[in-house]
Amino acid sequence: MIAVLRKELASWFASPLAWVVMALFLALSGFYFYTNLSFFLLNGGFDLTRGLWQYQFVDLLQRNFFLLPLVTMRLFAEERRHGTLELLWTYPLRDAQIVLGKYLAALVVFALMLAGTAIHPLLLLPAGAPVAAGPLVAGYLGLFLVGAAFLACGTFVSSLTDSQVLAAAATYTLLVLFWALTWNEFAVGAPVLWILSGLSLFDRFYTFARGGIDTRDVVFLLLFAAVFLAWTLLALGARRWRGVR
Fold this sequence. Notes:
Elements: H1 2-13, H2 16-42, H3 49-72, H4 77-82, H5 85-89, H6 95-116, H7 119-124, H8 133-158, H9 164-180, H10 190-199, H11 201-209, H12 215-242
């Protein structure tokens, strides 16, 4: 698993796409931090910094939604396109080690992207602005867990196709579905809406953005990622059994 992880990281950072995605994420994050901070300064000052982080974390989640499928689209699709997936199977590696190695590589890339935004609260310290650690920890934990769920979904989709573009597009489609589950609340009854809210990744995030940590949300997001990784294993197992390239 570690060997696959190292191979994936080396391949990722050797690609121009990696630096473009990470630079774009940091640039957009910085832009939204600047605009959110300007808004709160113009409407009450630093006493609204808790509200500032709520806005900032929701904006970061939206950036993750648009950029993380670009991280996962190549994980298996590229291997299939170049015919090197079968080469991996000739090594003394289990399917689970291959899947986890590739998934953890994407998770490391995502963690580095989030780490780059840690400079934002530090920028407020010289100005004497109060920065509470609790809401920041909760917000970043929520971002990491939802991002891990996004990446697991993208890993599964990438295992189904040899087209990176199709993998990214299909991942966007699935994520939009999990985003929009509760949009049309007037068309369904309360029981159905309660079920849909429980399945919505974005509704699960809002507690974290407000500075709280609900263990039910943590467990759900971890199980969500585990289910999609298990489906990835099944997809790879089915291909091996059929001998499909």
